[in-house]
Amino acid sequence: MTGFPDHQGGGPDGDGDRAGPVEPLLRQPPGYLDAPPGAFAQIRRRAARRRRARAAGGALAAAVVLTGSVYLVGAMTSPGSDRVVSPPASNSRTSAAPSTPTPTRGTAPTPSPSRPAARHSTGTRGGTTATTTAGPTPTRTGASATSGTSGTTPMCTTSQLTAALGGGDAGAGSLFRYLVLTNHSGTACHLTGYPGLSMLDAAGKQIGAPADRQPMSYAPVVLRPGGSASDTIHTVNQQGSCLPASVKLRIYPPGNTASLDFVGSVTDCDHLFTVTPLAAGSTGNPAS
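The line above is the sequence of DUF4232 domain-containing protein; the predicted structure tokens follow.
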């Protein structure tokens, strides 16, 4: 019987107990499965903390539920009160509203609201009615005529006045002439508003319709002896159809039924023939 060489045999003197080259890969050392030191104690402590936290949370939830139940049952079973409690009455009396203080001497009284400006209806021309509003007009300074309140000054009569056609102006196809009324009497008087004005031919017959009133505000004009007031006559310069030129003009001073006739040439073209209210001075209204 043939035997194995010594390096392959397992005799008493052989190397049979020596590990092969792959044995360390197939068989792990005996200490591989051992738990690290203290691992189980740490796991037990964590589990105990979780149990205590769950127990505390459950106890807190139970306490909240119990408290809410007790409060709800008490609110449902307690008798309500239907009596309305009013606030305590005050012992102090309501003080009376303070009376309006009486103005003392030397104190200016509060001005009362001014009345609305009066509206004056004017004559019609061609089916159109012009309306003017009387309002305050700035006072013109002058030695013989002023605009403002008339006070106790009487209205001027036709016999106190003389009339004349003064200067004028032109522009953009329009003609403007000044109609001047002068107080030749020895006493002061006033004029307020619009005069009536018509054109006359040589025989004294009226040409066309009287002048329309141009809407403007106005105020009384006080004429001292020798003082003058004037208005502005507005026509156009040979535009459209024209009436014959006047030889004379007839004026009715404001508030008078007697008229004054005086020499003056005015032409009504394109149905434009208007006058303004009287103002202080002899240069029309507004003053030029």
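Note on the example: Residues 90-142 have pLDDT under 50 and may be disordered. Residues 67 and 145 are 101 Å apart (CA to CA).
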